[in-house]
């Protein structure tokens, strides 16, 4: 499968800032930008920037960023599922995972997450993929936002819907370990039925769950 990547961008006007949402970017392009020190949800900001650089030039890797002038203040990553995850079992070339989406605290509330996903799906090549994301409540910034688990879940679902991702059932033990956890999926228009059926077999591996 050829991994085509077509650059797209939009300008997002907020009350205080003018932001550029753009991508997919290459590692070389990301290297030219500063990385906001508040992007620490997964690891310290400098290490997170290095992680993005590693993903950007993978054949299937996609990095979409939000930047304020020359500083990246938010990003979304798309990559093949980790080898240790259930979702990699089928070795599907047309299944890609929204691995991370993060926005620095001073820039939250500006609909950056929604627009990162919107720009991600502006690339026609995404119609060849099943795009998934796994949402676990223990990754959510409940303390920082002051939201309850269920209110945060509603925010996540609304944001993901901007990229066309919707809730899908699964018997994955980690997702089933808490009712707020969920699998969200977008099936591209050109994904063959064979791939959809293969994905269904990955989603449900215990017959009694059908």
Structure, described:
One of its GO terms (molecular function) is acetoin dehydrogenase (NAD+) activity. This protein is α+β, with helices and mostly antiparallel strands and 210 residues long. The protein has a single domain, classed as Gcn5-related N-acetyltransferase (GNAT) (Aminopeptidase), CATH 3.40.630. Strands 1, 2, 3, 4, 5, 6, 7, 8 and 9 form a 9-stranded mixed sheet that branches. It is globular, with a radius of gyration of 17 Å. It starts with 7 loop residues before the first strand and ends in a 7-residue tail after the last helix. The mean pLDDT is 93.
CATH class placement: Alpha Beta
The stretches of 5 or more residues where confidence is low (pLDDT under 50) are none
SSE order, one letter for each helix or strand = EEHEHEEEHEHHEHEH
Please estimate the helix content.
25-40%
Mean pLDDT: 93
CATH topology: Aminopeptidase
Distance between the termini: 31 Å
**Largest beta sheet, briefly?**
9 strands, mixed
- From the spread of the alpha carbons, the general shape counts as globular
Give me the CATH architecture, please.
3-Layer(aba) Sandwich
Number of helices: 7
CATH level-4 homologous superfamily? Gcn5-related N-acetyltransferase (GNAT)
The total of beta strands comes to: 9
Percent range for β-strand residues: 25-35%
Spatial extent as radius of gyration: 17 Å
Please identify the structural class as seen in this structure: alpha+beta
């Amino acid at each position: 499968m050829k991994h085509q990547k077509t650059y797209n961008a939009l300008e997002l006007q907020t009350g205080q800032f003018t932001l550029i949402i753009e991508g997919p970017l290459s590692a070389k392009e990301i290297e030219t930008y500063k990385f906001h020190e508040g992007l620490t949800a997964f690891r310290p900001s400098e290490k997170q920037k290095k992680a993005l650089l590693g993903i950007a030039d993978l054949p299937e890797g996609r990095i979409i960023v939000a930047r304020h002038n020359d500083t990246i203040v938010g990003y979304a990553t798309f990559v093949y599922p980790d080898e240790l995850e259930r979702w990699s079992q089928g070795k599907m070339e047309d299944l890609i995972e929204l691995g991370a989406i993060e926005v620095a605290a001073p820039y939250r509330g500006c609909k950056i997450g929604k627009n990162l996903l919107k720009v991600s799906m502006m690339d026609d090549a995404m119609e060849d993929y099943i795009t998934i994301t796994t949402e676990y409540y223990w990754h959510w910034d409940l303390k920082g936002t002051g939201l309850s688990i269920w209110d945060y879940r509603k925010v996540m679902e609304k944001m993901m819907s901007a990229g066309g991702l919707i809730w899908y059932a699964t018997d994955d033990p980690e997702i089933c370990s808490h009712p707020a956890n969920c699998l969200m999926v977008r099936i591209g228009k050109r994904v063959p039925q064979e791939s959809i059926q293969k994905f269904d077999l990955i989603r449900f591996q215990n017959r009694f769950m059908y």
